[in-house]
Write a structure and sequence with these properties.
164 residues; alpha/beta; eight-stranded mixed β-sheet; two-stranded antiparallel ribbon; metalloprotease; hydrolase; protease; metal-binding
Length: 164
């Protein structure tokens, strides 16, 4: 997706890819008893074989320098990429509470969807919120994600095309 395409893409978030949700749940569980935090990125639904306009959350970026403990996760905001595919955040609450804290609400300004995952980190132990901390619905979508190995399979022509 080039910059022009990104500026005029659909802003509707259709949901989160099932594999992406599983990754976030597993990462949160692996971080327990500390919180886990990452930034969410999306892909145009049409690039995933869906016949709809909108975005699907497909990636979780772990930001270098993120500090976590059992009650908080702090991201160094200067390390967050200025990314047109950025949609929001995901973090865990090891205590299992699926409501945003006051500190969470302060971080919700960056992006339009924020996911909180709670212990014991099952497929049902998460909730999505909008940028104001209001609970929202986020569908889990079964799509085939590109192979991670394909991420590094590109040429200079691919880079030039992306920059156009």
């Amino acid at each position: 997706m080039g910059l022009f395409d990104a500026l005029f893409r659909s802003s509707e978030i259709l949901g989160i890819a099932g594999e992406t949700l599983e990754f976030a749940l597993e990462s949160a569980e692996a971080s327990h008893p500390n919180e886990y935090m990452g930034m969410l990125r999306g892909t145009e639904a049409s690039q995933l074989g869906l016949d709809r306009d909108g975005l699907v959350i497909t990636d979780v970026l772990v930001i270098p320098g993120t500090e976590t403990n059992s009650v908080s996760a702090t991201v160094k905001t200067n390390q967050i990429p200025n990314d047109v595919r950025s949609l929001g955040s995901v973090h865990s609450h090891p205590n299992g509470v699926l409501r945003p804290s006051d500190a969470d609400l302060q971080t919700f300004g960056r992006g339009s969807v924020h996911i909180i995952i709670g212990a014991p980190y099952r497929r049902t132990d998460w909730q999505a919120f909008d940028s104001h901390g209001q609970q929202t619905t986020l569908d889990v979508i079964d799509v085939e994600l590109p192979d991670a190995e394909d991420f590094f399979d590109f040429t200079q022509a691919d880079i030039d095309e992306e920059l156009r």
